[in-house]
């Protein structure tokens, strides 16, 4: 279950990063509330997953899901630029996440 909690925590990190962008510096109420709620839920699930997963693995996977997910949302939803170098960087992060998963019991 720890990996499921960690995956959901990572997805919530994408939600709070996107909603933080939408909050325009916490000047818009609804995206600001979504940011705070998603942040709290993400941290809570991360902490639960850390009961059985190593710190380095859990934190790396959590931030990696958030980083790659935020990159994808930025490109797909916000129209941010995409380049071969950015795609390569995202693929390298995903490769690191796979290695972290494979190296942990």
TrEMBL record:
The keyword DNA damage does not apply. The chain crosses the membrane at residues 27-46, 58-79, 85-102. Keywords: Cell membrane, Membrane, Transmembrane, Transmembrane helix, Transport. It is found in: Cell membrane. It is a multi-pass membrane protein. NCBIfam families: PRK11431.1. Belongs to the drug/metabolite transporter (DMT) superfamily. Small multidrug resistance (SMR) (TC 2.A.7.1) family. Gdx/SugE subfamily. PANTHER family: GUANIDINIUM EXPORTER (PTHR30561:SF0), SMR FAMILY PROTON-DEPENDENT DRUG EFFLUX TRANSPORTER SUGE (PTHR30561). This is Guanidinium exporter. It comes from Sphingosinicella xenopeptidilytica. The gene is sugE.
């Amino acid at each position: 279950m720890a990996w499921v909690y960690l995956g959901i925590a990572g997805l919530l990190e994408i939600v709070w990063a996107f909603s933080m962008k939408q909050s325009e510096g916490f000047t818009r109420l609804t995206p600001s509330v979504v940011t705070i709620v998603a942040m709290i839920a993400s941290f809570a699930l991360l902490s639960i997953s850390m009961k059985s997963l190593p710190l380095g693995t859990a934190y790396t996977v959590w931030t990696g899901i958030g980083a790659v997910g935020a990159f994808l949302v930025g490109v797909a939803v916000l129209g941010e630029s995409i380049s071969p170098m950015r795609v390569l960087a995202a693929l390298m992060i995903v490769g690191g996440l796979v290695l972290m998963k494979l190296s942990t019991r």
